[in-house]
Amino acid sequence: MSIFSASLFIAPAVAKPFNIYSAEPTNPVIGVKASEIDLTALTEREVNLIKKYNNVIDDHLNYNFSITRTVRILVNHYPQHVNQILVAAYQHYPTRIPLINRAVIQVEPALTSDVLTTTHLVAPQAFDETIAQAIDVEPSYIDDIVTTATQLAPEKLDTIVRVAIVSEPRMSETVVKSAAESAPNGFLDAVVSSIKEIPQVTKSAFVAVRDFFSFNESDERQIPEAEQWQRFIVEAKAQGITRAELEWFKEQGYLTEEQIAQVYSERKTRQPTN
To answer: What global pTM score does this model have?
Structure first.
């Protein structure tokens, strides 16, 4: 874990606030203040590096380099400072954060987790779009992207799963598996929310849920609560999953016959009254 990544876990009483600029950066975007970027969780060393890269970016921009080209050059030469380079770039162009993030992932996919960490820490308003950008640029990293995003923002699990599936529907099974392993208590509701909005992924998501419980047997693994399973059954039926397809879950002890029957039982035809 980098020093910057560790900043996420600094207790509020330890975090030190810093104000890098008394005025706006050299190249602000009209209508957006770079001061809105949150720097309160960074260390003094990190802040000094950000000052350094702000000056370097100013020099590059004065030579008519684009911000994305500048970021690519800096990250290519100083990957160990990717977090500070990103923050400096965000301060110059706060409305282009997803574009800046995309540039970094394109030049060095292995830094994707750092990009997500930086965005979540100092520019959380761009976090969702950054997840989508990361998957779009490097879909082969979707497992790491979902895992990292869930660790950073477990309260946004529904959004993370949905964004990931929308970004790469063909890899919905991988998304579900990563979410399940990262957040076993909440992933089932996240799956339900996703298939409600994206019905066409129901089948692959259903298979992914089954595979997770089939191939990840562990006495210590936490099992979703009955209410979560009930929502799963209701949505599965609504999207065309048959009762027979749920039999495996019953055989393995995850569902009861009563739970399934409650959703799948046919209503009796009412007899006409005399």
So the answer is: 0.76
